[in-house]
Records
---
Amino acid sequence: MLENRYRVYSQYLKDKYGEKVYKIPIQLSVTCPNRDGLLGNRGCIFCGEKGAGFENLESSIPVKDQLKQNIEYISKRYKAKKFIAYFQNFTNTYIPLDEFKKYIMDVCREDIVEIAISTRPDCIKDEYLSFLNEIKKEKNINITIELGLQSVNYKTLEKIERGHTLAEFIDAMWMIKKYDFEVCVHMILNLPWDTEADIIEGAKILSALRVNQVKLHSLYIVGDSVMGNMYENNEFKIIPLDEYVDRVVSFLEYLNPTIALQRLVGRAPKEETLFCNWNTSWWKIKDYIDEKMEKEDSYQGKKFNYLGGKALK
Ligand code: SF4
């Protein structure tokens, strides 16, 4: 029996830093080019007014204080000593460079070992990256860029009104990989327009582009999103739970085994969603995934044999 059938993020951090490391969410008062009118006004069709940061402190609280409050709470509760400052919500590089630099400087403390910045593939620019590289060298703080991609199918990206295609993602990867940074990519495995073949292709593309971490989400539908309206009008169908479990397992089998999995199932506050995880708790779904992998002797990378000149092997 295999102990871990996929590379769990918490263990990945433990291996990297020699002890448990906790991610501290920070909320900036930022928006997104897909919401403020530059690319679109209503955002990706699944995105609600709060973005992804429903568990965060208010963005009106200064960054240093958000960090302090959260670190005090986590270190008391888990006796933690090392942390990752995680700029989580909306598009954190969609601000002027000076402002960005100030926020980054605000989180540079002794106990911060890494800074993770969530953004869109079309909001990656070399000036921001080269500043982060200076921070990495001067302060000895690792950098991870978290890119929302959600699907590798450019037709699905169009349907969800993402405002970019796969090409911008590939371009962002080239830019980021010039530096010694890690990249985490967010994917939704049950977008209504994606098939299992898209999911497998997603695992292959992320592996081929040398992504380091992946965060998988199950689609949840928030009331204040475009998709919320579509859901109420029965304009699409959501695949059943067992199919989601199958998709996660297929994705993992094709994924490079060195890639760490931050998450396999999305989480959202029940009260604010029209649909979330088939009314099943996320940890139960994770158990279903584990059980299926165990039963089928499946593991991450089982089918990872397609790179490096496969036809010549
Ligand atoms: S890119 Fe992110 S923040 Fe912007 S609309 Fe889409 S999901 Fe929301």
Note: Residues 32, 34-35, 43-44, 47, 51, 90-91, 120, 148 surround iron/sulfur cluster (CB under 6 Å).
---
Amino acid sequence: MKGTPAMDAARKQRIKESFKTITQHEEALTDLVYKKLFSLCPHARAMFPEDMTTHKMQMSVALGLIVKSLENFATVEEHLMEMGGEHADSGVKPDYYPIMSDALLSAMATVSGPAWTPQIEEDWTIAINTIISSMLKGTSDSDQAREAA
Ligand code: HEM
């Protein structure tokens, strides 16, 4: 994801504030994310376990950690790259990420209600693109590692 604008201090602050609202609806958020993901990409359903409870919790924890680390993104970047490599190994294709991004944004908009503004949408779009870029960096690293092996 080339050309993603940098996260300036004001943007990080808005995301943190917005996340406070979003986490009040944690369960609804993850329900909506996967409902949307599976409606946009039905064949992704088979990649996940039947019982999504643990996975929804993992996604929620991951988002919380990322938001907490916005001030020092380098501390989570390596973990995101590793996660991207693991996702690639589980068959997650780069093409699926924009679908996850749409699912996350749409779920966040729904649970945020009137607090969701065009500015917040832009902030989260940039944050999610940054996360996905890091995960995809790990994907190309794992491809390179495989090719080198
Ligand atoms: C913003 C992007 C994403 C984030 C933050 C994310 C986060 C996570 C987390 C935290 C886990 C738990 C295990 C681990 O740490 O690796 C996980 C597992 C998984 N993710 Fe993602 N993910 C993302 C994108 C995607 C996409 C696009 C797909 C495919 C449509 C996907 C499919 C999976 C699958 C199949 C698992 C394993 C499920 C299981 O066996 O429980 N993820 N993801």
Note: The pocket of protoporphyrin IX containing FE is lined by residues 44, 47-49, 55, 58-59, 62, 83, 86-87, 90, 92, 96-97, 100, 128, 131-132, 135 (CB under 6 Å).
